[in-house]
Amino acid sequence: MTETEKQLMKQNEVLLAQIDALNKQAEAYTNELRLLREQVDFFKKKFFGRSSEKSVNTDGQLDLFDDDDSFRAAETTEEKTVIEEINYKRKKRVGYKAELTEQLPIKEIHCELKGDDCTCDRCNQK
Fold first, then answer.
1. Contact indicator for 71, 63 with CB cutoff of 8 Å
2. pTM of the entire predicted model
3. Helix (H, G, I), strand (E, B) or coil at 90
4. What is the pLDDT of residue 65?
């Protein structure tokens, strides 16, 4: 082997090492990007989603029990529950505020304006 071939071999090895390092770095960035996107999706659902705990989507959530039987048992109990829909509207109570305030004492306060407060800001008349 000549001297130039040895130098080319060393350059090839250095370049291959750099390529491997860049591939590892790109993979790390890809994993971090995926994690950040998952976090953004989670926070979007948390902030803008329903406020009840009836979430169906359980991506990435670990099971409490590893048995599939316990999961199936939970599914069968959920299927048996009946959801009752309310098909009526309640009537508004008429005079409810009057009932609450009828026993309160009434105190009349008469205010008189004096000086510049007696003139209108727009037309400057009393």
1. yes
2. 0.36
3. coil
4. 57
